[in-house]
Design brief:
Blueprint: E1 3-6, E2 9-12, H1 22-26, E3 29-37, E4 40-41, H2 44-57, H3 66-77, E5 84-92, E6 109-116, E7 124-132, H4 146-157, E8 162-166, E9 172-175, E10 179-184, E11 187-190, H5 201-209, E12 211-212, E13 215-219, H6 224-229, E14 232-237, E15 241-247, H7 254-266
Parallel strand pairs: 7-8, 7-15, 11-13
Antiparallel strand pairs: 1-2, 1-6, 3-4, 3-5, 5-6, 8-9, 10-11, 10-14, 12-13, 14-15
Length: 273
Amino acid sequence: MTQVWINGEIKPAENALSAEDRGLLLGEAVFETLLVKNGVPQFWQAHLARLHSSCEALHLPLPYSPAVLKSGVLALLEGAPEGHSVLRLTVTGGSGGRGLVPQTPSPPTCLMQISPAPESAPSLRLMMSHQLRLATARVHKTNAYLDNIMARRQALAEGADEAILLNQHGRVASCAAGTIFVQLGKQLITPPESEGALAGIIRGQLLDMGHAAGLDIGEGLIDPDALARAEGLFVTNSVQEVVAASLSSGELSDGQKKQGHALCEALPQFTKF
């Protein structure tokens, strides 16, 4: 039976969430997804910092200290098999009942769960989605994922693996489940957050490096026509880290796959929690 950590207790996943939870009814929730390698969550501090930032932006209190959350993760990981798994940490508005803003403040729901990690994709085929990602000051990881879902469904229906989303200015913003990097010569460029890009954890690690795998890494505006002339495309997220990609009409070279692997190898590896 699958178990989850919810508000400080380990419970069966079945019936763990109230039917009145605002995350379920209204999408009032933020979340983080972490890759767990051999029992060690990767980039835990960075994910926790982003979670706190998102909670503050959405006025969701997070009543549990890092130590309490860590103990919950350890409890979930007890007896877990070696290898890779995925940890998701979700904070919702709690069981506040009807109304956009509850008349009586309700404590949040804090939920953590462990799932098997999907097989790592050796490469991805990308297509341009008709879904838009608005260019805003800051994108948060909320449960309002309908645009991402529709973009991914469109990609799969057209024989691709992942979708590229443009913003209202017609420039590249992100992928449905990750951020995108474009290699132009020796430069590796990703859209800035102001273009609608999520402040991705792996994205941030690559930007902090500045140089990796023989490339200069930075932010820049990306027009769609740059994708076709790029020497390489890479999709990053916390579960698959860095994956080489190509447009659905193009082929991926062995060199691009090796470059993606080299970027992945350049990331820090955490062996203690």
